[in-house]
Design goal:
Layout: H1 3-31, E1 48-61, E2 78-85, E3 88-93, E4 99-102, E5 106-112, E6 114-115, E7 118-119, E8 125-131, E9 140-147, H2 152-167, E10 190-191
Length: 197
């Protein structure tokens, strides 16, 4: 085969792969059309506890770190500014409206190593588990964050402390102790934020 023929074959394969990727993403978008990101502002009077900047990696089905969800505003990797308040967590993704997760919709926070195609050091990702809506129609999802101006553990501990205050646990609970309102699924890639981590 000539060099020109080989080049045409390579171009043809690339076009087919690109088309398949577009088709798969459109199917995923239709599948997840009923899921909505929690667009909203920080409630008036909420006290800011901490803030961090980094990368938003993905949102997946709860306990399935390789199953990306195509939720509008959360479908693609982006830079993110995270604001932790006593009322919940705000996420500011580049080019997207602010998202706010109230504490009563956050089920747990911990650390992980793998999400979609992102593999980092053990415990290098913050996994925030939350529900898309309240009530029986809620879908449990996990959002993965990669802090860059601080450690994943510090951010996870700060959010966990906010959840403990919501549940009435003492503020002096051990840093990194699990703060959940339901028992999250675990996987070999999870890294607990407890003292034994």
């Amino acid at each position: 085969m000539s060099r020109e023929g080989a080049l045409l074959v390579m171009i043809g394969v690339a076009v087919v792969l690109l088309a398949l990727g577009v088709i798969a993403w459109r199917r995923r978008t239709r599948r997840d059309a009923g899921l909505a990101a929690p667009v909203g502002e920080i409630p008036p009077g909420a006290a800011t506890v901490a803030s961090a900047s980094g990368l938003y990696v993905a949102t997946t089905r709860h306990g399935e770190p390789l199953e990306r969800l195509a939720i509008r505003g959360l479908g693609f990797r982006s830079r993110v500014d995270v604001t932790v308040t006593d009322r919940g967590v705000a996420l500011d993704l580049t080019g997207q409206p602010r998202l706010f997760l109230p504490v009563d919709r956050i089920d747990s926070v911990d650390q992980a190593q793998v999400a979609i195609d992102r593999v980092v050091e053990p415990g290098g990702l913050v996994r925030l588990s939350w529900r898309t809506v309240d009530g029986s129609d809620a879908v449990a999802v996990d959002s993965y964050l990669r802090p860059q101006d601080g450690s994943a553990r510090a951010l996870a501990d700060t959010i966990a402390a906010t959840l403990r205050r919501r549940e009435g646990a003492p503020d002096d609970a051990a840093p990194g102790a699990p703060a959940t309102s339901s028992t999250p699924a675990t996987s070999p890639t999870d890294t607990p934020t407890g003292p034994d981590a």
